[in-house]
Amino acid sequence: MKQGLVLDKVVLLGRTLEDYRRYFALDLAALRGRAVLDVASGVSSFCPEARQAGVPVTAFDAIYELPADEIQRRCKADLDHVVAAVRGLPTYRWDFYKSPEHLRTFRERACQTFLADYRSRTAGCYVPGRLPRLPFRDGEFELALVSYLLFAYEEQLDYEFHRQSLREIMRVTRGEARVYPLVNFEAKRSAYLDRLRGDAELAHLGFEEVETDFEFLLNSNFYLRIFRR
């Protein structure tokens, strides 16, 4: 019997700049003026918050094909489901978020900030599309970030999807990519990690698991740094 969160689709949960800073150990001062791509960014407020701090972020997600009202409807339904589902699960630590109610506050704030910015279509920074293809130039970005898609949804997204997505992400990134977390919703290290390291098609890439001081989903205190050898 599964002990973790059970999802049958990728859900829309808003995450804040503070979430991202902790996930990826980001140094915002070092990123000012450097192009950043947030892949599968959904309803996170990282894009508007980081841009306000001087970091030129581009957000990429399939939901940007939809009007704001439809995104808002889906986000509310997904948040209601997840907040109810995580209550009492042994696969989460509540040191930072404190409680499901406090978690909801974080997620709602992120979604509201995103929606206000999305409705204004700020600088065209919201780009619709679907992995494993990206509509960007080679080396267009200094840094690419992926949170709670790859590895977390390994039951829904197969190994080939992961491999093609990472190749494409690194095509458009002249610096490095960071992926968080490295565990699935059962809090188990993804089986794809070791396969990626040994994949001949990815021999030009290096993979480093970097420890952080943040853990909500158990064993999620690492991100994957991907770089060219």
Give structural notes.
The chain is 34% helix and 18% strand. The protein contains 7 helices and 7 strands; from the N terminus they run ααβαβααββαβαββ. Strands 3-2-1-4-5-7-6 form a 7-stranded mixed beta sheet.
List keywords for this structure.
229 residues, alpha/beta, 7-stranded mixed β-sheet, 7 helices, single chain, 7 strands, 18% strand
Blueprint of the fold:
Elements: H1 17-24, H2 28-31, E1 36-39, H3 46-52, E2 57-61, H4 68-86, H5 100-120, E3 126-128, E4 141-147, H6 159-171, E5 173-180, H7 192-197, E6 205-211, E7 222-228
Helix pairs in contact: 3-5, 4-5
From the spread of the alpha carbons, the general shape counts as: globular
Strand order of the largest sheet: 3-2-1-4-5-7-6
Beta-strand percentage range: 15-25%
Q: Low-confidence spans: pLDDT under 50, at least 5 residues?
A: none
Structural category is: alpha/beta
Number of strands: 7
Radius of gyration: 17 Å
**Overall pLDDT metric:** 93
Number of helices: 7
| Major β-sheet profile | 7 strands, mixed
* SSE string: HHEHEHHEEHEHEE
Distance between the termini: 41 Å
